[in-house]
Amino acid sequence: MQILVSEVGPRDGLQSVKRAMPTQAKHDWIGALAAAGIREIEVASFVPAKLLPQMADAAEVVREAAKIPGLTVLALAPNLRGAQDAIAAGAHKVTMPVSASEAHSQANLRKGVDAAIDEVRRVVELRDSLPAGSRPGVEVGISTAFGCTLQGEVPEDFVIAVAGRLAEAGVDSIGLSDTTGYANPAQVRRLFRRLGALVGHRMGGAHLHNTRGQGLANVVAALDVGVTTFDASQGGIGGCPYAPGASGNIVTEDLVFLLESMGFDTGIDMAKLLAAREVLKAGLPGEPVYGHVPDAGLPKTFRPAAAGAA
Amino acid sequence: MQILVSEVGPRDGLQSVKRAMPTQAKHDWIGALAAAGIREIEVASFVPAKLLPQMADAAEVVREAAKIPGLTVLALAPNLRGAQDAIAAGAHKVTMPVSASEAHSQANLRKGVDAAIDEVRRVVELRDSLPAGSRPGVEVGISTAFGCTLQGEVPEDFVIAVAGRLAEAGVDSIGLSDTTGYANPAQVRRLFRRLGALVGHRMGGAHLHNTRGQGLANVVAALDVGVTTFDASQGGIGGCPYAPGASGNIVTEDLVFLLESMGFDTGIDMAKLLAAREVLKAGLPGEPVYGHVPDAGLPKTFRPAAAGAA
Fold first, then answer.
1. What is the DSSP letter of A70?
2. Which of A220, A257, A258, A293 to mutate to test the interface with B (most CBs of B within 10 A)?
3. B245 shares contact with chain A (CB less than 8 Å)
4. pLDDT tens-digit series, residues B104-139
5. Which is deepest, A62, A202, B148, B257, by most CB within 10 Å?
6. Which of B212, B224, B296 sits opposite A293 (nearest CB)?
């Protein structure tokens, strides 16, 4: 069985690192990730450069990434304007932020949940206005789906209601994000099961954090209920998982090891993925990178899924 | 549903730390763990003090721990002589090492797998010779059950055959240990399913390592196939999981958080468990301790299983 690992480091990771990675270094890293077999990369965020100077080169990064054969290029856009720019640059998919917590939505987007969904609707209309064949995918990963550091509990019924409204709005893929590192495997199974029952083939990926060490445990739970796309960031970049405010993304290297060891084919070559890690490090010298598998090494018994391990 | 967390720090952890924790500090730590609701602790190893000076006070530690009401006191004994001493000191259960890898068995015990099983048989005979009511439990966690750094692949059929011979020998509880941090969730499900089918109620716990970041993912898999006992070490002591030769025990605090969040009742109070961590640190000043949950803190939404979360 194939599983899609969607690399979010160049966007989610780099926007959390204080200094900006030079544009050429981004090209190199994205190229190395693609060469390792990563088939989908979230490469940039289309927000004003004043807010996120690390993403000032978003259009250039998307344009360059879009030249890589076989790679699906994702860009984050918080609004219609950003989506227009992302599409103009050649992004294959636009991912938009919608939160299931009013408090988080206000803090993160300066608008409420309803207004965020309205913005998504405008981007869907933009997509539909484009000629068939040149329409980008529109994705949403619902933030704080498993709880919110501001609001606390996020009712599961509300998360599912938001998903339903997004499906009605015409979003192609609706995933769930554990923005705060609050999720547990029982909750992951429950929510993705409900999501799949409601939106069927529009069920998107799991964006899980390792803030409390539960990231891969939650991946196992999501696999059980049919999730086939997982976000991760190389080296876990996006801040130390121990630091307050850290993103705590699950580490791509550890995720790919998990999946391949279990017999899920990711299409990713572990040796080349570790080589891409060196390219990342060269682009951000001195920045801490994480990962158990890179530190401990592969087991003697490791065989990639395509080689027939299970 | 109840899950037993079996704390192995005072034995497995402390024997991997170079300096010896003072005996009084061991008493304090074990007391604090028990006060947090930990119902089973592996407190010592009965090996010659020349080999493991950290365990020179094994008898005294067992005697003191056995005074704690409701606590099951485990001791490791590599042979009959060690088992006699452990039982004399008042251990409720004796756990014995048997490896599924000949190479590891020779390296670790200086005897082969057959000879290790013979030694277990002698301890079972000793148990049976004692008056009913004073018979200790005899446990084995089969080492390198998921692969060996020396031998590489460990055939699953061989692991299961060893388990069968141990059951025939009269061992009360037969678990599986991922000594090398090689296990993946698919393998964990497969092997524990076979173990349970073969030995039924004698199926013991899972001793999983986090060397490659897969520890809690493997716990989720083991829970799926009916495993109800998990080893862990407070603060993950037993060496840095990144260092070569590290034990990489899963961290008790992170495990308890996982289980309680999922709705499994461990009987353990998280706040008191974190207090015990401070007692550990005081007993081994300067020694690194690990754990994502202690570093990140509990989520706002956390409710222990007994409070009705799921």
1. T
2. A220
3. no
4. 999 988 999 999 999 999 999 999 999 999 999 999
5. B257
6. B212
Three-class HEC string of B10-79: HHHHHHHCCCCCCHHHHHHHHHHHHHCCCCEEEEEECCCCCCCHHHCCHHHHHHHHCCCCCCEEEEECCC
Q: CB contact, 8 Å: B252 with chain A?
A: no
How far is Cα A271 from Cα A35, in angstroms, rounded to an integer?
11
pTM of the complete model: 0.96
SS3 A110: coil
ipTM beyond cut 0.90: yes
Kindly state the tokens that stand for B27: 């008493």
Q: Flag whether residue B240 sits within 8 Å of chain A, measured between CB atoms.
A: no
Chain A residues whose CB is inside 8 A of the B289 CB are none
Alpha-carbon span A163 to A199, nearest angstrom: 8
Q: pLDDT of B202-219, one tens digit each?
A: 999 999 999 999 999 999
Closest CA to B295 of A295, A241, A216: A241
Active site residue A240: yes
Distances (CA, A) of B214 to A183, A216, A235: 17, 7, 16
Cβ–Cβ contact B254 with A under 8 A: yes
Kindly list the structural domains of chain A, giving each domain's residue range(s) and its CATH number in brackets, ordered by start.
Answer: 4-307 (3.20.20.70)
